[in-house]
Amino acid sequence: MGQAAVLLVAIAIAFLALSPTATGDIGGGRRSRFLAVTAPKNKKCSIDPTVCYGAGSPGRRCCGDQCVDTDSDPFNCGKCGKMCKFTRACCGGKCVRLAFDKKNCGSCFNRCKKTCMYGLCDYA
């Protein structure tokens, strides 16, 4: 009975070590709560830009007091403060018309062979 208890404890420890409730990826699908990098909630990126490099940050660029992804943010497309016009989306840091752009047809980086009409490739 002693060996069975030791085996169950070992399995429980292994399960807890690999459980998805822990945070911080250490590679190979394993996770560790000790290696987690999280930004403190009260820190602003205008004071400390390294906040934008933490886990859960929407992007690595600091615009004003917010961390943003300048590749996809329509209010900071390509650089801070560059806003895409109505009916345009930010794809790879450029404002594009998804309805008619041959390189971004209907969604970012969806390429068409011939034409893009109304967000559909080679429509009619």
| Proportion of beta-strand residues | 5-15%
Chain-averaged pLDDT: 76
| Count of DSSP H/I helices | 1
Bulk shape: flat
Give the helices and strands as they follow along the chain: HEEEEEE
Instruction: Output the structural class.
Output: alpha+beta
Question: In angstroms, what separates the terminal alpha carbons?
Answer: 74 Å
Give me the Rg, rounded: 23 Å
User: How many runs of DSSP E, i.e. beta strands?
Assistant: 6
Describe the strand arrangement of the main beta sheet, using strand numbers: 1-2
Unreliable residue stretches? 15-32, 34-39
Helix content: 10-25%
Largest sheet: 2 strands, antiparallel
Report a brief summary of the structure.
The chain contains one helix and six strands. By secondary structure, the chain is of the alpha+beta class.
Description of the molecule:
This is Stigma-specific STIG1-like protein 1. It comes from Musa balbisiana (Banana). With 124 residues, this protein is of the alpha+beta class. The protein is built from 1 helix and 6 strands. It has one helix spanning 2-17, and strands spanning 61-63, 66-68, 89-91, 94-96, 116-117, 120-121. It is flat and about 65 Å long. The N and C termini lie far apart (74 Å). Residues 15-32 and 34-39 have low confidence and may be disordered.
Helix-strand layout with pairing:
Blueprint: H1 2-17, E1 61-63, E2 66-68, E3 89-91, E4 94-96, E5 116-117, E6 120-121
Antiparallel strand pairs: 1-2, 3-4, 5-6
